[in-house]
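seq as requested:
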Amino acid sequence: MQKNNMAIAAVVVIIAALAAGYVLLSGVLSPSVVSGDTVGVYYTGAFTNGTVFNSNVGSKPLTFMVGAGQVIPGFDQAVVGMGLGQNKTVTIPVNQAYGPVNPALIVSVPVNDFGSNTLAVGEYITQTTKSGQQLQGVVTAVNATNVTVDFNSPLAGHALVFTIKVVNITKG
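struct tokens:
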């Protein structure tokens, strides 16, 4: 009886040691994302009504350095703490995404500035500023004298829902 108890105790100790080793090694083998790491992710971005606006699933992963300002702040924050192979769905509020719609970026331009080009509502245009910056906008109104163009991001003013899967982590 005493030998059986000792054998059971030995098995319990071995199982506990293996479990502790697994927990320790899983942290080393599957590290969590921290600021300064470079990650590769698959994502699908949607509006809160479920309409998908972009996805890279099935193509090349998006690669960026976490905390370097290479993606919108809410996306950057969402990957922190994720592990390799982990999936997450997160709703990013407007102020952590593309911000609110900026009325100063909705401009009325004399139709003559476009020369003989005829523009239609919904058409995307590119405008170069005096400093050489290229702005992309969508025509929102056209009349005989003016064209109204919205240079806000189409994602401005929206909370965004991202489904993210971490597929690569390179420690920083």
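Strands lie at 38-47, 52-55, 62-65, 87-92, 106-110, 124-128, 134-142, 146-150, 160-170.
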